[in-house]
């Protein structure tokens, strides 16, 4: 008898909570299924981890393929920008400067979007597929054009150094890999952001180094680098002729 009394007392105590739970269930039943958001399951480990690794190996493969296909040799074709017509030097210096300004605005855009969305994953998640296609097209075209304009004269100016012949292709391969990583961030795993950061640093460093190197040759020829192919001759000429500021 006491057991029955205690059971009834427990049911009376739980009755309000039971009624509230039933109310919550009825609210869920009344929801329109179209308003519910289906959350995608997390990517399996072989995609979340293996995908970024595979993309990193793709970057290395592109560089290896370039090394095998076009082995290094000291080219007989070179240029010394100092001897080019004044209009060419002025125009090229202005074009390089404008590319540098565009690069700075691109970096500012990255900072703004990350601050606005909180992360690269959220930024690309809110981007439609059509916009990502246009985004990819614009950046591939922009990266290729900017690296061509700066990379070709830089590589020909320093044609005698094998390590300088890597700067142009490394930057361009990093830009390509970075663009591919955006698709991985959106459709596979946010782990692709690691590849995007590494490639972003690579193409930024190589691009800025070439930009500074060319502007130094065009605008400040009196500054002689240890890597200049005519360094010894120019230093000797400056010593023998104090009026010669550039050594040319």
UniProtKB/TrEMBL annotation:
Keywords: Membrane, Signal, Transmembrane, Transmembrane helix. The keyword Cell wall biogenesis/degradation does not apply. The chain crosses the membrane at residues 45-70, 91-112, 132-154, 161-183, 195-219. Residues 1-21 form the signal peptide. This is DUF4386 domain-containing protein. The lineage of its organism: Bacteria, Pseudomonadati, Pseudomonadota, Gammaproteobacteria, Chromatiales.
């Amino acid at each position: 008898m006491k057991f029955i009394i205690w059971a009834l007392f427990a049911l009376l105590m739980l009755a309000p909570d039971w009624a509230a739970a039933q109310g919550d269930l009825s609210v869920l039943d009344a929801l329109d299924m179209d308003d519910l958001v289906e959350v995608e399951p997390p990517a399996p480990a072989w995609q979340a981890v293996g995908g970024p690794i595979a993309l990193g190996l793709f970057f290395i493969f592109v560089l290896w393929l370039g090394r095998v296909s076009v082995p290094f040799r000291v080219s007989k074709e070179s240029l010394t920008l100092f001897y080019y017509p004044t209009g060419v030097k002025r125009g090229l210096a202005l074009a390089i400067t404008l590319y540098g300004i565009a690069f700075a605005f691109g970096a500012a855009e990255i900072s703004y979007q990350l601050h606005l969305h909180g992360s690269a994953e959220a930024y690309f998640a809110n981007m439609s597929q059509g916009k990502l296609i246009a985004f990819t097209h614009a950046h591939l075209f922009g990266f290729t054009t900017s690296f061509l304009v700066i990379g070709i004269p830089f590589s020909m100016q320093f044609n005698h150094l094998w390590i300088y012949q890597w700067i142009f292709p490394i930057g361009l391969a990093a830009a390509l890999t970075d663009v591919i990583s955006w698709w991985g961030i959106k459709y596979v795993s946010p782990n692709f952001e690691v590849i995007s950061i590494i490639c972003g640093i690579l193409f930024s460093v190589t691009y800025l180094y070439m930009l500074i190197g060319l502007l130094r040759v065009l605008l400040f020829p009196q500054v002689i680098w240890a890597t200049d192919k005519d360094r010894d001759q120019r230093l000797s000429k400056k010593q023998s002729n104090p009026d010669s500021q550039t050594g040319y």
